[in-house]
Amino acid sequence: MPKIELISFDLCPFVQRSVITLLEKGIPFKRTNIDLADKPEWFLQTSPLGKVPVLKINDNILFESAVINEYLDEITPPSMHPGDPLQKAINRAWIEFGTELSNLSFKMILTDDEETVAQSLEALQNKFEFLDKNLTAGPFFNGEAFSLIDAAYAPVFIRMEYLLKQVIDDLIPPACNRALDWRDAILARESVQDSIIDGYTELATARFKKRGSVLLKDL
Ligand SMILES: N[C@@H](CCC(=O)N[C@@H](CS)C(=O)NCC(=O)O)C(=O)O
C-alpha cells in the first residue's frame, strides 16, 4: 500500500467523502488539516485549485474528491462503485447532484440574508423530492452494498442532522420516504459516524455564526 496523506479542512464535506472511503476500505492514512482562511504556502504550491481535499500518494498529488475516491476504490477491491458502465455513469451523475445539495445547504447556512435562506430551503426541498423519485429499494443507493455514492451524500446528511436540525427539523419533506430511509441507513453506518469530528455541532455552529449566518444566529 502506498503512503497516503489526506490534506484536509476540519469541516469540509468533500474531505469527509474521502475520509469515509478511506475508512470503508481500511486504508491507513495520515490526515493533515490546514486553515482555509490562512492557506500555508506549501499548500498553495501543492493544490492546483487551492482546494481540499488533496491526496498525496507517495510523491504524487490527486485532487477533486470524486477522482480521489475512485482511485482509492480501484486500489482496494472489491469495488464500491458499479461495474456496469451505465450504472456507473448514473452513480456519477447523482454524485454531482449530491454536490449541488451540499452547495445549496452551505449557501443557506452561510448567508446573512433571510430571503436567500428561504430560496435555498425551497430549492433544497424540491431537489429532495426529485431525488426521492429516483431512489430504488435501498437501504443504500445501489441496494444492499454501501457504495461511493453513499459516501458522497453522507456529509450533507451529517450537516442536516448535526447542524441544521437545531433550526430546521424537516428539511427533507416528510413525504420523501425513500430519501429519509436512505439518510437513516447512511447515518447509521460506522464509517460515517467515525468520520464526524469531535465537537462537530459546536464547532460548525460557532464557525458559521462568526461568518454572519442569519439561520444560526439565535443558537
Ligand atoms: N469539487 C471539489 C470541491 C472541493 C471544495 O470546494 N473544497 C472547499 C472546502 S469544503 C475548498 O477547499 N475551498 C477553497 C477555499 O475555501 O478557499 C471536490 O469535490 O473536491
Describe the secondary-structure layout:
Layout: E1 4-8, H1 13-25, E2 30-33, H2 41-46, E3 54-57, E4 60-63, H3 65-74, H4 85-110, H5 114-133, H6 148-162, H7 177-188, H8 190-194, H9 200-210
Parallel strand pairs: 1-2
Antiparallel strand pairs: 1-3, 3-4
Helix pairs in contact: 1-3, 1-6, 4-5, 4-6
Bound molecules: glutathione (GSH).
Helix content: 40-55%
Strand tally, please?
Answer: 4
What proportion of the residues form beta strands (DSSP E)? 5-15%
User: Count of DSSP helices?
Assistant: 9
Distance between the termini: 45 Å
The unreliable regions are: none
CATH classification class of the largest domain: Mainly Alpha
Helix and strand run: EHEHEEHHHHHHH
Bound molecules: glutathione
Overall average residue pLDDT: 97
Total number of domains:
2
Structural class: alpha+beta
